[in-house]
Specification:
121 residues, 0% helix, 4-stranded antiparallel β-sheet, 7-stranded mixed β-sheet, mainly beta, 11 strands
């Protein structure tokens, strides 16, 4: 089992930066991949960033436009999402996710409780 707890969300104005944090635990943590998935007000679900635990290779969703960075702190079992130049379209609930496959399909993916990010113009 995997437990994930996110923090760092909030309400900011356009152009601001935020760091989201996620701490993992459980008998099957870490998985091969950790990532961040957001659920928008339009109910769209998007994997915005992912990283492999062992190799540190990263992937980003096209909508991030180079503004997001995902990093790991293995010693602390932490994964971070650094977001810059935030736009109102980034408004969503952001979930930390753990999976043994890169695409984070529903089956076999663990989720945190989510943290709200709201960007106002």
């Amino acid at each position: 089992q995997v437990r994930l707890v996110e923090s760092g969300g909030g309400m900011v104005q356009a152009g601001a930066s935020l760091r989201l944090s996620c701490v993992g635990s459980g008998r099957t943590f870490p998985t091969n991949f950790l990532g961040w998935i957001r659920l928008t007000p339009e109910k769209a679900q998007e994997v915005v960033a992912s990283i492999s635990w062992n190799g540190g290779s990263t992937n980003y969703g096209d909508s991030t436009e180079g503004r997001f960075t995902i990093t790991l702190d293995k010693a602390e079992k932490m994964v971070y999402l650094d977001m810059t130049n935030l736009k109102p379209t980034d408004t969503a609930v952001y979930y930390c996710a753990a999976s043994n496959v890169r695409n984070f399909n529903f089956a076999g993916t663990s989720w945190g409780q989510g943290t709200q990010v709201t960007v106002s113009s």
